[in-house]
Amino acid sequence: MLATTSLRASRLGAIGHGRLLMVAESELAALRSTSTKPRVEKSNWKHNVVYLYQFPRTPYLPNPSPYCLKIETYLRVNNLKYELNGEQISDSQIILWRLAKLFEIQDPVSGHERGTARAIERMLDMSTVNSLNHDRMVKHAHLTLARNVSGVPLPAFASNFLATRFAKKAQSMINRKTDRLSAEELKENLKRDIQAVADVLDTKKFLFGDRMTIADCTAFGHLGTSYFLPFRQHITDLLDDDHPRVKNYLERIRAHYWQDWKLPEY
């Protein structure tokens, strides 16, 4: 059942035997400050049901956070029953480990492919995300926060004011994570990371064959939350012009696992 509700935050935790609260991290949430300790939203837990707390839907994306989209895609790929219930914050990698252990899900990779998959995951989570965030949250903050994109019911003057502050905080966060790479260096970084994804994908359906892996969920989460936005970015140019196979790969995942994800008419 899908039920989007509050925007309170909580932390990853296990509640009783076989009952899990899963909360996905977000780079947007990292920019928010709170003076109160997050609390758990759910008290009447159902056995072996995953409760996914995250941001509500937006007009163009199921979730603006690549980490949240990664987790929900993984749940859909593995047909895990879950409820969607607002925004929560924690580490998406740990969530996937816990899910795999609890539901005895084996990632369909082994040997050198397992090593490559792990490298791709960490590249996307630790490197690619910074380049994508710079484009989306700094350079195009005013478009990202626009009412038709974010779904936040604010007038243009208010969203533009918030976008300026948002971009400054996002830039500060990216500087801390990248040791102050320049805009051009971040663009080059994204170019090389996308080439790495394209090299691994080659002509296959998914990164490692005919079955989705955690690495695929991670790639879809990071690339999809930027590529499917309704304005051009560096990722748009790279996929449309240089890497159509990666573009088709994202479209293929969206069509198969996100049939309820309908993009607005331009």
UniProtKB/TrEMBL annotation:
Q: What GO cellular component entries does it have?
A: cytoplasm
Domain named Metaxin glutathione S-transferase: residues: 191-253
Q: Which Pfam families match?
A: GST_C_6
Which InterPro entries does the record cross-reference, listed alphabetically?
FAX/IsoI-like, Glutathione-S-Trfase_C_sf, Glutathione_S-Trfase, Metaxin_GST, Mito_Protein_Transport_Metaxin, Thioredoxin-like_sf
Name-wise, this protein is: Metaxin glutathione S-transferase domain-containing protein
Where does this protein come from, organism-wise? Mesorhabditis spiculigera
Which lineage is the organism of this entry classified under, starting from the top rank?
Answer: Eukaryota, Metazoa, Ecdysozoa, Nematoda, Chromadorea
